[in-house]
Amino acid sequence: MKSAWVDSEAQTAVEHYARHGVGEDLALRVYTTRLLGREPRLVLHGGGNTSVKTTLLDLLGDEVAALCVKGSGADMAEIEPAGLPALRLERLRKLRAREALSDEEMVRAQRANLLEPTAPNPSVETLLHAFLPHKFVDHTHANAILSLVDQPDGEAICAEVFDGRTTVVPYVMPGFALAKTAAAVYEAKPEVEGLILHKHGIFTFGASAREAYERMIALVTLAEERLKKSRRAVFATVQLPQAVAPIETVAPILRGVCSRKDERIEGDWRRLILEFRSDPAILDFVNGAEVLRYSQAGVVTPDHTIRTKNWPLVVPAPEGGKLDDFKRAAQAAAQAYVERYQGYFARHNARVGERKIALDPLPRVVLVPGLGLFGLGRSKKDARIAADLAQCAVEVVTDAEAIGRFESISEAEMFDMEYWSLEQAKLGAAAEKPLAGQIAVITGAGGTIGAATAKAFAAAGAEVALLDVDAGAARARANAIGGAALALKCAVTDAASVNAAFARVVEMFGGVDIVISNAGAAWQGRIGEVDEELLRRSFELNFYGHQRVAQAAVRIMLAQGTGGCLLFNVSKQAVNPGPNFGPYGLPKAATLFLVRQYAVDYGAEGIRANAVNADRIRSGLLTDAFVAERAAARGVSEQDYLSGNLLRREVTAEDVAQAFLHQALELKTTGDVTTVDGGNIAAAMR
Ligand SMILES: [Zn+2]
């Protein structure tokens, strides 16, 4: 591994932060923390921390010996000085005299010694940093180090590889006990450049930011070199089916078997979002004859437990054309996984005196021979994190097996980590949004109503895919939403285009739960004289478009087996025809019956079908110019024209979006039409 230190960049950081009143020590601490955080082989998703001991002024203006240490959960790659809260060093060091310190007491003691009372919680490894004497201390879970320490004889391997430059700290769970143990191990050999934490990671330290950083790079490089030597071939591949089924058919099945009925609300499901990964290294790993041994041996570093659980789910290779067999086998494997997890929880919760509350028993990583791996999470972001950590585990375990045999911490140690209150805090206690874990597809999303709907569903926690015949418009709307919002070109008048777009949604998120079939356009003409071609064009878009979208969605929903929700933008024209609007109203009337047909045919599978009838919304159909024209024709103001309804209020695209959202949340409603028009008795449903 190469050092990324550049003198001129370090100098730039010092000058930049000096302008913001930040001293050189902290500026360089930020600089090398970012260097570590930007190298994924060293640090992934909050899996490391750094500190500097310096002198700062407290709120009274007095000089204080301070420890600036990474805040819990901060991203090292993007850290700023505020991400390294400052604590009173001497008071932290006094804690070392204590025989024991509970986690809660440790957190209180740390918060009580913050120089800035509103600072984020300091790292759970703060005391380890405080008890070491060095000015700069760096900690990572470097992949190459893990491949050496995750071995039955990891300590002996490290003694040989590092040849006196490090000493090994036996495995102790992070917190006060590890801080005391590490300090004692260091003091027995004070000439070392770093500490190897068995089954966990590495600490390096130095008098300068550069020294601590360069030692990290040097020691990790030694580990990498060892991993290149005397490797043996690993992972003899099993016989795979001739044709492996593609992700777009496999993912919805996996997503379905990894969902659970919500016991509190009938008809609700706890679902997960998927992130797929595959490359030659992943394929070697998942195709290995012994995958059930090395993949089930435990996490590569304890920190991963809260994101990936202790073991991935392994399913059989999915054979093309035999998806029913695959579904049965995947279901059985997922059920066995859940039972194993529940057994693990019950055993260890009994050991700790029944104090813990079980997390959901669903896997967060699924290995699929012949295909690759999936990360799972309640959001796309969490699914990506799980996939990143799973990919890291593939690398670490592969290298460990190449020089020996991968071994993790014990099951009891994993439980203590997974159910450690301080680790749980990293996941955040924020209440989940109502559509968390769900995937919504919106057609016509480049337009006003589609965009407002996509925005409302994303705000409610769903992952959203914005489909539009105008790819640029969809992209602009998706960018405005941000996050993982997906933009796709899709012409609903073309079955191949619809199927391709849904396949892409499945590859991206794993499936589909909600569809808002919104794409449409208006044609006018007096029905007795209208050109048949024009009428057919309107039917292609305003009826068959909805049918194609609903059909593609239902196929995926049935594969998942967790119900679903089809929502349609119909029109008041379906029940209250306006003059010369037949070419628009007739296919919309057919679509209204399409809604009811889906409700009838798929209710037993838990798939609901509902519609919104909206009227007089400023949009691509009802442009500002058109509003001005109609208002002038009636001799009223534009405002009076738009609010010409019982409530005398203008109806907006956001109002329509909220109606769709409510329908998505109404778990006991199907075959329903909600009118969003401010009140118009002539257009009321009957
Ligand atoms: Zn650590």
How would you concisely characterize the structure shown here?
By secondary structure, this protein is of the alpha/beta class. The protein contains 25 helices and 20 strands.
Which strand order does the major sheet show? 3-2-1-4-7-6-5
Distance between the termini: 72 Å
**Count of distinct strands:** 20
Query: What average pLDDT do the residues reach?
Result: 94
Approximately how much helix is present in the residues? Answer: 40-55%
User: In angstroms, what is the radius of gyration?
Assistant: 30 Å
The parts where pLDDT drops under 50 for at least 5 residues are none
Report the biggest beta sheet as strand number plus sense, adding barrel if it closes: 7 strands, mixed
Structural class: alpha/beta
Strand content: 5-15%
Task: Give an overview of the whole structure.
The chain has about 675 residues and is an alpha/beta fold. About 45% of the residues lie in helices and about 15% in strands. It contains 25 helices and 20 strands. The longest helix has 29 residues, at about 325-350. The termini are far apart. Zinc ion binds near residues 201 and 303.
Sequence-ordered SSE layout with sheet pairings:
Blueprint: H1 7-18, H2 24-37, E1 49-57, E2 63-69, E3 86-88, H3 89-94, H4 103-112, H5 126-131, E4 136-140, H6 143-149, H7 154-162, E5 166-169, H8 176-187, E6 194-197, E7 201-206, H9 209-228, H10 247-257, E8 260-261, E9 269-270, E10 273-277, H11 280-286, H12 291-294, H13 305-308, E11 313-314, H14 323-351, E12 365-368, E13 372-377, H15 380-403, H16 411-418, H17 421-426, E14 439-443, H18 448-459, E15 463-468, H19 471-481, E16 486-489, H20 495-509, E17 514-517, H21 532-560, E18 564-569, H22 582-602, E19 607-614, H23 624-634, H24 638-642, H25 653-665, E20 672-676
Parallel strand pairs: 5-6, 11-12, 14-15, 14-17, 15-16, 17-18, 18-19, 19-20
Antiparallel strand pairs: 1-2, 1-4, 2-3, 4-7, 6-7, 8-9, 10-13, 12-13
Helix pairs in contact: 1-2, 6-9, 6-15, 10-14, 10-20, 10-21, 18-19, 18-25, 20-21, 21-22
Bound molecules: zinc ion (ZN).
Zinc ion binds near residues 139 and 141.
